[in-house]
Amino acid sequence: MPQTQTTTMTIQLPVEANNRLEALAKSIHTSRDDLAVRAIEEYLDLQEYQIKAIQEAVEEADSPNAEFLDHDEVVERMKKLGQG
């Protein structure tokens, strides 16, 4: 398996967050660094997903065939779907 390229980053981490990170890493038998990398990657994945979803929604809303509903129509549709 090819080695992933890495770089070093120094951050100021609150003591309590560092303590939590160390405790969690110990409890799941991994290093604090590996856990921090996973946490950052998951955060980035979520943010990128949300930004993409927002951009797609804006494009859809800007399209000539966009359908807009008022609040009452949305509530009615949600009730019919069993989500209201």
Rg over C-alpha atoms, rounded to the nearest angstrom? 22 Å
Number-wise, the strands total: 0
Figure out the total of helices.
Answer: 3
Largest sheet: none
How big a fraction of the residues is strand?
Answer: under 5%
The backbone outline, from C-alpha atoms, is elongated
Task: Give the domain tally.
Answer: 1
Head-to-tail CA distance between termini: 49 Å
TL;DR?
The protein has 84 residues and is mainly α.
Word description of this protein:
The protein has one domain (about 15-80). About 65% of the residues lie in helices and about 0% in strands. α1 packs across α2. The longest helix is centred in the middle third of the chain and has 31 residues, at about 30-60. The protein has helices spanning about 15-25, 30-60, 70-80. The protein starts with 14 loop residues before the first helix and ends with a helix. It has about 80 residues and is an all-alpha fold.
Secondary-structure map:
Elements: H1 15-27, H2 32-62, H3 71-80
Helix pairs in contact: 1-2
List key phrases describing it.
single chain; 84 residues; mainly alpha; 3 helices; 64% helix
